[in-house]
Amino acid sequence: MPEFELIDYKIHEKIGEGSFSEVYRVKHKRTGQFYAAKKLLKLYVDSTEALQCAEIQIMKALDYHPNLVSFVDILHDGVNGHLTLVMELMDMSMYDYIKNRKRCLSEKRVRRFLYQIVCGLHHLHRNGIFHRDIKPENILIKISNKMRDNELVQLADFGSICNVSQQPPYSAYISTRWYRSPECLLTSGYYGPKMDIWAVGCCFYEMLTLNPLFPGENEVDQLDRIHAVVGSPSAALLAKFRHRNQLQFEFPKRKHVDLRCLVPLLSHYGVDVLNRMLAYAPDARICATKLKQHLYFEDLNKTKQTSRLSSSMQSLDDGGDGPHKKPGLRRKNTKSSVSSTESLDRKLQSTGSSVMTRATDSSLRSKAEVLNCKRTLTEKMIKNKNLERMWGMNPCPGKTRLGQQINSTRF
User: Fold this and answer.
1) Residues recognised as catalytic
2) Mean pLDDT of all residues in 360-366
3) Lowest mean pLDDT segment, chosen from 217-231, 277-291, 362-376, 388-402
4) What is the pLDDT of residues 69-84, one digit of tens each?
5) Which of 63-67, 94-98, 242-246 shows the lowest per-residue confidence on average (mean pLDDT)?
6) Are strands 139-142 and 83-88 parallel, antiparallel or unpaired?
7) Fewer beta carbons under 10 A from the terminal one: N or C of the chain?
8) What 3-state DSSP class applies to 16?
9) Whose CA is closest to 276, among 256, 257, 290, 264?
10) How does strand 21-28 pair with strand 34-40?
11) Distance (Å, rounded) from C-alpha 264 to C-alpha 266?
């Protein structure tokens, strides 16, 4: 049993731990709802100091986003100094989701996962914050029992976040080595939000193949593995890095590998996304905004926009207050709504002749409109089939893992 207690919560079991925290599965005593409680190992003398915690600061600075983990309770033990963050209980991390799989995920499912990761990252970046430690262990997933094609994915663990308003150099060794971008390896803390894009690209590959892309044993080996895939940097690019690091780098000339050779079943747009995320120079790497708008996510973006439109229409139908409107609001306006309807009926009756005229004109044009509508639908069906052919979505994923099995320890 843990050596601490939580007010209003019963601790059931430890479900995870890291270098700076321990995570427990807890149950609210009054409601019976289960949550995840993250106890930070760092001790805080008082509540004022505890409120300066990076993870609390980000929750204060950001609006709610479904693809970012959010806290439902913050508990500080003034006696022992323990700070505990209570959040929604997710099913598992992305690392746990893929580590024991015998069969690769379909690209369609991976694309949905990636889109949600990108949406959460975009929300961070547009608010001037970058994560600095994106990896499968820090990506949480919740699987719906009713709809297995509707998993919720969230970015978690904001203990390493950084604000772009801070000036570099930043901490040099902040991210996990396997997902560390070249600028993090070649400079002494001169990096920015694009380091997150590189890490997401590494996670994208790992979700597709079930194996890490650059599992380096040390920094030299890490760079060597990167160069074996994306090629060694040019002299001009190295010169840009060199003035931000006292070390002199000499790398053998290596050409980049076509990523399609590493992920042969990946669609054309998927390969393009991976190439753009794994650009060696941060200036050439795609940003979160353009990544979210990439054609690879075109149908997912349209679905999201349609969902927003439906919510907006529902909000209008409910009197403009949406799902959180006051219960008596609609009853209060019932009389005015009825009177408005009667006024509209009288207006239509007074202008009946003009309405009939427009209806007649409309019927004369109906045949042409039907033909035009059929032509539009046919063109749309052809376009959708072409897109599906270009995306090459793979409904039957490969039977074996791509690449060799990695048994190295993560650092």
Assistant:
1) 133
2) 45
3) 388-402
4) 989 999 998 888 999 9
5) 242-246
6) unpaired
7) N
8) strand
9) 290
10) antiparallel
11) 6
**Tokens encoding 364:** 């004369």
Predicted structure pTM score: 0.74
CA distances in angstroms from 91 to 40, 123, 143, 154, listed in the order given: 21, 23, 7, 11
**What is the C-alpha separation between 40 and 19, in angstroms, rounded?**
10
CB atoms within 10 A of CB 98: 22
Q: Which two tokens stand for residue 152?
A: 């919720």
CB 237 within 8 A of CB 284: no
Say which residues have a Cβ less than 8 Å from residue 287's Cβ, sequence separation at least 6.
125, 193, 194, 197
Does the pLDDT at position 86 exceed 90? yes
Instruction: Look up tokens 């509209």; give the residue.
Output: 344
In the β-sheet with 92-93, what is the strand arrangement from edge to edge? 92-93, 139-142, 152-155
CA separation for the pair 87, 138 (Å, rounded): 14
Quickly state the pLDDT bin for 369 (edges 50, 70, 90).
Answer: low
Q: How confident is the model over 388-411, as pLDDT tens digits?
A: 444 444 433 333 333 333 334 444
Six-digit token pair at 333? 């306006």
DSSP-assigned states of every residue in 338-373: HHHHHHHHHHHHHTHHHHHHHHHHHHHHHHHHHHHH
Looking at residue 186, its amino acid is L
DSSP string computed for 94-134: HHHHHHT-SSPPPHHHHHHHHHHHHHHHHHHHHTTEE-S--
List the end-to-end C-alpha distance of the chain, in Å, as a whole number.
28
Tokens of residue 200, six digits: 């997401």
User: Which of 53-57, 309-313, 374-378, 398-402 tops mean pLDDT?
Assistant: 53-57
